[in-house]
Amino acid sequence: MSTALQDRRRHQTEREIRDAALDLFEERGVDGTTVDDIAHAAGVSPRTVYRYATTKERAALIPDAEAEARFEAALAALDPAAPLVPQVEGLWRDALAVFGDGRSATGRAVLRLWRLVPREPGLLLAAIAVDEERLARAQRVLVDDLGLDALTARVALESTAVVVRVALDHWAAGPRRASLVTAYDEACAALHGQR
User: Fold this and answer.
1) Contacts (Cβ under 8 Å, ≥6 apart) of 128
2) Which of the 8 DSSP states describes residue 69?
3) Residue 40: which pLDDT band, with cuts at 50, 70 and 90?
4) I want to staple 46 with a disulfide (CB 3.0 to 4.6 A). Which of 39, 139, 146, 192 is the partner?
5) In CATH, what number is assigned to the domain containing residue 1?
6) 112 with 36, same domain?
């Protein structure tokens, strides 16, 4: 089997698990859902769910492969000689563009997740943990590969990540279906005192 076919199958399984978890969390809540329930709804074994997500909450947080790839590529392309924060804001913007206005399958999943987060504390904690892991990996790239100092890398990544979380909250809570990038740009403008 080709690597491309294996990747497509893996991404399809990830989406099926994520969507099953979101469906069940919306219907029953996180506390009313088990990993076995998610596995059954996704048509996979519980072992397969655990292969992709270490907890039932993380099943709803399986990252979008395209957004992750865009983030990683933009991260590796940062110029260590240029101001870092505007570059990191740009890489977030590029990664968030994958989700559009929430009408694509990927966008709908993120929108559904961030509409659940305010009423599911365990899901919020899992989302924060996933973000922290992503930021730690990104910081290693900035320090180890690009030669930036750890403090500069951490401040740039963590301060912009907070803006991403605020943008996700703003987008999910809003009555209109603007794009996630629009919500992010509004949050960045608020941060920089341009609103």
Assistant:
1) none
2) H
3) very high
4) 39
5) 1.10.10.60
6) no
Q: Which two tokens stand for residue 123?
A: 């899901």
Residue 177 has, within 13 A of its CA and on its CB side, a CA count of 11
How far is Cα 139 from Cα 11, in angstroms, rounded to an integer? Answer: 26
Is there a single domain that holds both residue 148 and residue 89?
yes
d(CA 166, CA 141): 24
How many helices and strands, by DSSP H and E, does the chain display? Answer: 10, 0
CA angle 171, 156, 152 (to 5 degrees): 170
Cα angle 47, 48, 54; round to 5: 75
pLDDT above 70 for 140: yes
Distances (CA, A) of 103 to 35, 99, 161, 182, 184: 27, 8, 23, 15, 17
Q: pLDDT tens-digit profile of 165-179?
A: 999 999 998 766 688
CATH of the domain at 70: 1.10.357.10
CB 13 within 8 A of CB 44: yes
Question: What pLDDT, in 10s, does the model give residues 67-79?
Answer: 888 888 999 999 9
Q: What is the 8-class DSSP label of residue 104?
A: S
- Domain containing residue 2: 1-62
Q: Are residues 56 and 76 in the same domain?
A: no
The region that residue 50 occupies, defined by phi over 0 for left and psi between -120 and 50 for alpha, beta otherwise, is alpha
Amino acid at 26: E
